[in-house]
Batch of 2 targets.
Target 1
Amino acid sequence: MARGRRRAPRPLWKSGRALAGYGLATAALVGSAIAATLGEDVSLVVDGKAMALRSTAATVAEVLKEASIPFGEDDYLQPGAHTAIGEGSTIVVRHARPITLTVDGRTARHLVTATSVGAALDELAIEHGGSRLSAPRTRALPLGGMAVTMFTPREVHVVAGERRVTTTTTEGTVRGVLRETRVRYGRGYRVTPALGSFPHEGTTITVTPPGPATPAHTIPIQADVARLDWAALAACESRGNPHAYNPSGPYYGLYQFSLPMWQAVGGSGMPHVWSAEEQTYRAQLLYQRVGGRWQGQWPHCGARLFG
């Protein structure tokens, strides 16, 4: 029986299956090369402005270098500079900028990455609700920086003759508070503190019309009364402030006179508009009138008279 000739094996590279495999591998390599050439879609938000680009960079820092966007250690960068980039990555950059902030008369310079006045105050953890600002909260904060003045709400008291007003204000001067409360004054009036001064929390503004000079002290003060520690009493009652005002009484001046008691010892007008010497004289006179029984007038501080 004749034997047929055995067919030689077909080379592997001519196999259909192998050719298909080579084709897929080649396509994959080509696809990778194309993808590497085209890069990744990346979103950039720089100082609040968004842009899109396609980048072949591997990290955030490389993307910014590729896009010619500078950044430093004081700038805000999210994610970090060495973070790997992937398809659809978003990079946020906010450059640092100075802000000179004056709050209730006190000035400080800060460096922030916020892009608006309100956001800068939030970044600095400065409460600004209800405050008066020299620029709108929504105003953009330029890279070159800007100066902002802020006045916080403060409670102040106004005493004008028999009129007493307690108000919450954001005015920056005593003059502004008087205008806001519609308290009038004119030539010869005495206004304390000065019209151009800043009204701090708890300030008492006194408006006194022109009046007589300090009256003559016709009743002498006994030597043992004059030797008492009146400065210590004043320090306890009013922290030594001759213009002090306590609306709860109301009480006035160095020794916190009530108006009826002030009038009882010959005082005229309002106690706290007079000099410290006049107020001390009336306090000593009161001590003599009550025979040294200080407990009725100065129950909490009177013992300071005796050291």
Target 2
Amino acid sequence: MSKRAEDLLTRMVGIPSVSGNEDALARFLVDEMREWGFETHLDEAGNAIGQRGDTDAPMILLTGHMDTVPGGPAPRRDGDLLYGRGAVDAKGPLAAMICAAAEASVDGVRYVVAGVVEEETYGKGATHLAECFRPAVAFVGEPNGWAGVGIGYKGRVMLRYSVSRPSVHTASPEEKASEAAVGFWQDVVSYCASVTTSEKAFERPIATLNEMTGDIESARLVISVRTPPGFDLPAFEEFLGGVTRDGVLKIDDRTPGVRVDHRGAAVRALCAGIRARGARPTLKLKTGTADLNIVEPVWGVPMAVYGPGDSALDHTDDEHISFTEYAAATDVLRDALNHLAVELRQ
């Protein structure tokens, strides 16, 4: 891998970009991608957009998110490893996309690379991207390891529940607000268990109690439910309406789960590149949620999720990426783009 490619990722990791505060990194990428041969701009959502190739040719779009969660280790290099928040999730995958699209042939094809905002929250950048572009093939940058290809991500339903009860003595038999909240949580868990017989994490809804506050007079819960593709959200909402116990329920997010066709052009091209380097591709179904969930239902084109890094390090204090793996992923992705360019010309 070139020193220039290593420097790109190193500088990206060195620029803080907590979700909602990506402007400094976005402006850096607009300037940097221009030096790599792209026409660039910041769009209305704050996404950094780079384009190269014939604007009338079929488009291959590569999108990765710029934002990170807070915290993480201080940016530093230790031999082959680069530490820092975002090294894995997901500046490494985004940097690989920039390098690969800069090196790939533009004969009869157009590449668009998008560094998007607010993936870690509610997908503002991807939502805007879905409205503005219509690619022929697309890739989403997330860490799956250089020999891994993501083909499915679970959806997410965010519940905010609050309930109040009159002030009573703790010895009173009347239901307290804290008890009503616990009852609601237990109902959500029981429902998730009742709607699937699968033991596979990807195929069953899983509820997490993110926040819990309150006492006998008022209580509040924040619950996230990770849902598989095909999850019956209307039926779930109907169920929730019957178990609120006179509380107030607000649903903040209704992101559906998605699974792409593993026989599609994007997956096949990546797998060919991985095999060419002596490895066996691993198709991955992830229990988290990504920008794939937002753009795939809109675009309906061959897609895959790809990028270097160990996703087990996402959001941890030990987040780091190997430059060797970053180089391998860049090569695989560049070759996949070249393969698709030929396929799209035919």
